[in-house]
Amino acid sequence: MSKKIIILNGSPRKSGNTAALISAFTTGAEEAGNQVTEFFLDSMNIRGCKGCFGGGKNPDRPCVQKDDMDKIYPVYKEAEIVVLATPLYYWTISGQLKCAFDRLFAVAECDPNYRNPPKECALLMAAEGSGFEETLYWYERLEKHLGWKSIGKVLCGGVMGVGDIEGNEKLEEARKLGASIQ
What we know:
Mean pLDDT: 95
Largest sheet: 5 strands, parallel
Number of helices: 6
């Protein structure tokens, strides 16, 4: 059975190492018959969450702010799997991804108990080094708090320059992760 997958690409590089992981994952997922929609967050107009608790009144446009999140919300709500894709910046996810993810709270505000829609999730990360511990701590607690289930993580260290990931075994790992989605 085909699944709907949303990828939130938090990299500022449209053709960087994170993009290569996304491409490999997408190839595997689409070959397995899934539908993948990617959002390149760096090119989108997304403002930070205001913490106003004013969202959730309109399920079609849940946030009171009107920006490019309105393109993401309908795809997010229909998706069964959310893929967080980001380079490692100062031991955590990029600002682009954090900003967009914070804004998804408006969807939870549509529920009287602030429950997030049930999802599966995955994490794709590229990094100059290999210090993923803080991000894994955040991701695992996020997963638990939201009530989501992780289907996997691909963490690729040692890839600073654009193209450094070429030929890396993590690309095949990302493709296999995508292909495993049934």
